[in-house]
């Protein structure tokens, strides 16, 4: 087996990180209407700084309904509270992606299924070179799978931990990328509400990509009062119990 293919394997019952004894109809024909994810009209519009030329993006626009058998699953990229992320390759296009696997039981236990619906609805319609692309999703009886753009640079937090600090030039580039992406989000009335180094990924060309829209909200009325996000990065407005708006995202650009 060559070096490239050694990172991947055909998913089998033994190697998959999930139970394959699921309903066949759900696995091969994901019923997207189950989630009632209607496009917010204000999230539609032109793509900024984002290439739509790759085959995954084209198939997503054409309404492709993926299933687990469409992918070869590779190494784990990271783990979170509700599941894990795996490197994967779409069989037809050979396109490299990341598959985020979430456990339904854990989502329901934590009462955050509404956040997942919102995350899918918002992130899948934000198309910008500094925002991690979500190509689509599918699910079976126990798990939900999000098909995400792969960022080979990994988490900004890990880079910062390894280096201790960034040069002024690198910091300026990262801040510029983040500010550009947030401006795009805010113009679409989207507030991320959990900007932190752990939710910023580094792309193939060293660019920053905002990820993890689990706490995001589409808020045309601007003012919100939900206490949310990560404790270490909470803005003063939330700590003091006051209403907040898009400017809570600005705190994340100054953290660390």
TrEMBL record:
Pfam families: Pkinase. Its EC number is 2.7.11.1. It is an enzyme of class 2 (transferase). Keywords: ATP-binding, Kinase, Nucleotide-binding, Serine/threonine-protein kinase, Transferase. The active site is at 194 (proton acceptor). There is a cross-link at residue 196 (Glycyl lysine isopeptide (Lys-Gly) (interchain with G-Cter in SUMO2)). GO terms for molecular function: ATP binding; protein serine/threonine kinase activity. ATP binds at residues 81, 100, 198-199, 212. It catalyses: L-threonyl-[protein] + ATP = O-phospho-L-threonyl-[protein] + ADP + H(+); L-seryl-[protein] + ATP = O-phospho-L-seryl-[protein] + ADP + H(+). InterPro entries: Aur-like (IPR030616), Kinase-like_dom_sf (IPR011009), Prot_kinase_dom (IPR000719), Protein_kinase_ATP_BS (IPR017441), Ser/Thr_kinase_AS (IPR008271). Residues 8-18 have a biased composition (Polar residues). Residues 1-54 are annotated as: Disordered. Residues 71-256 form the Protein kinase domain. Belongs to the protein kinase superfamily. Ser/Thr protein kinase family. Aurora subfamily. This is Aurora kinase. It comes from Pseudo-nitzschia australis. The lineage of its organism: Eukaryota, Sar, Stramenopiles, Ochrophyta, Bacillariophyta.
